[in-house]
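Researcher: Let's run the pair from yesterday's discussion. Sequence first, then tokens, for each.
Model: Starting with the first of the pair.
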Amino acid sequence: MTAALYGARPFERELEETMRRVAIVLALWLVSAPCVWAQNPDQVFSAPLNPLADFRGPEFGIDEDSGAIPTPQDAATLILRTLKVKYPFLDTTADDFYCLIHVLKWGAVDKEATDGDVVVERQKVGSQHWYVYNPKSNWGLAEFQGKRILGSPNVWILFVHLNNTSGEYTPKYEITVTKKRPANVDKLVELLRLVPSTGVLFGAVPVTTGWGGGRIDTKKRMPADLTVVPKALVQVRYMTEPRTRPVEQSSSLGDAQVFDNEGRYWWDVAAAIPIKRASELSSTGDVLAPKEIDRYAAFGAITLHWPPIDVKQGGLSAIPAGVIGLDLTDTPTDRVLVGVGWGPAFANFYVGGVNVKLAPDATGERKREWQGTFGVLVNVMSLVKAAKK
């Protein structure tokens, strides 16, 4: 019998042993689970490239000089002129509608020498831009130009190619949907370490200026990374004898793009650091953080949120959250934290009570009492780094 359990009542001993076993089983499951979740088969489907007759950029929300889409509102115009025409049933105003948009503008035609004296003619990629569109009013320019999808199975892709002058080619977009472990579970795994003991192919008909796309079959695999690899099967013209006919070659249209499709959660994981005086805090920009983190004084905490939050975004939370924490030792119930977290400015503070198991009294009994507490909620990785020092 360990010293921590000495003199404890049978019910408490049984509870602590049960919690310890549950923690070990949970830790093993969390660490091994990603190896199972990551095994997903690829998926394949194709869609034609549709010509844009009498294309005028501003009418489609595209700046013709740069090939860029200036705002999410311009992207909405483009979607209405393309996907919505082909798919009238598509509800582009639904909150869960997301569209990955790739605008590629072909540039100058270069002649390259290959195979000795043989000269081939290739058109280079002039510019290209990637976007993530969502119709919600709070989807600003940063989100539009970013790589985040907030956990939706309703994801589409739209690609627009401009200014092709070199002849035939077939766009081909490969999309792989790879399921991954939720971000809040990742944090929980890191916290528990401190406790002792799909390919989708889009093919198209070659045109000068056109678009293609369709719905990505995510199979409701969430959270997941959507990896998009843009390619083209290009008709290469050989300008010298003996090869004068076009030859089809595979060509890359740029780097693979990875989009993060992960939703909001009603719970997250944090480290609760008790603070006794203001001098224990330091300022990093506009945010306060503990100068030093004592892992033995800290709590591993679960924060409860309503409405659910984007746990990857970080930052301060103006909406109060419930906080439940345990001691990061082999007897986690020696200190149990119950409180409320709130971070409208400067830091994510918490206030509440700690139910502490006291040292054995003269009879050997370990009684419990409530003590007030105040502190700061910080990222789990801050605690992990402190534990490694």
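Model: Moving on to the second of the pair.
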Amino acid sequence: MTDFEEIRQAALKAALSNNDIAAMEKAASVNKLFAESQKLEVEAQNVRRVAQAEGRRYWASIVVPFLSVVIVALSLGFQVLQFKETNQAQRNATEDTQWRQAVTAATAEKVGITSMTGGTLLKGFLDSPRYQQQSRELCILLLAQTVNLDAFENIFREIAHKTSWSNVEDVIRLNRILKRHYTELSSEEQEFKAAEEAQQKQALSQQQRAGQPAPPTSILQRRLSSRDPGIGKTIVDQELQIVGVSLADLLRTSRQPDFKLDLSDTALWDFDMSKANLSGAIMKNVMLYNLSLRGAVITEAVLVNVNFALVDLSDIEEFKGSKWESTAWWMATKIGPKLLAYLEESFPFSDGKSYANPETDATKERYKERVADLQKLAIAK
């Protein structure tokens, strides 16, 4: 009970108990005031309810359209996302089909993996996030086995364009495989020539015994009509040059100091490798021929059993810490004076040691002769 209600009850009680007109009038006034206060309170409550209702209507007019926009946006976003996922799934399915077709075309040849069509199809996946690595590996395999020079150039051009220090190992591996093929074909060519000469002598002997002149022969005609390994050897030789030029371009660029450059068992010949950065490189059993290494950096490089023939080593100033083991460096055509002095002092010819030599077994006499020639060339420069 409120204070006002207690006052009203007290006034009514006094008026009823005393039968006093003044007390009754006072009680009536108090009741009137109480009634008015009740009325005002009811009106205030009504005003508050109206204000609350108006507030709700005001916020509803703002929130409802906003929520509608949000719901529509979410609905559209979900539909777009669903469309993208469906579209991506369709593209992936199409790409999967094309990939299978490319692999089939590249491996369906009867004689090795030599398909120009398959290689062309595989090239299209070198930028694919899903098949990039697989396509590159298959392209390298394709290149290692093709005897079609046009196909090789067509495929390798794209491989070289996408080769960096992060994936150069597979190009180096390709060089090693081609070098092995070249060596095998060289041996087969020697056997082929020996057999060819024997057959020719036998035919000549038979003609002479019969009293008839030996028939004229064309070397080119005989080679084209037979399985002459010399033809394949020529193609592999050109393929090695193509790969070597690509490696030389990359070797002129900077690389991470901790990158391990291993060129062992490779063949590098017939191109310009000047100013290549071979610092810290490991080069074991490497065949170098008709090559320019002018101005190259070979600091801390390790050269073991490296074959030097017609190799230009002039203008090399950075060679500190390089090691030249079982390497007939004196077979190079030119050597800069500083590097020549370093090699004479640190890695001279040693009797009893085996050297990689493109001509004959290394001898002390040949060493002295070649060093004298190299000194003259260094002084003349």
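Researcher: Give me one sentence on the second I can quote.
Model: The first strand starts at residue 267 and ends at 272.
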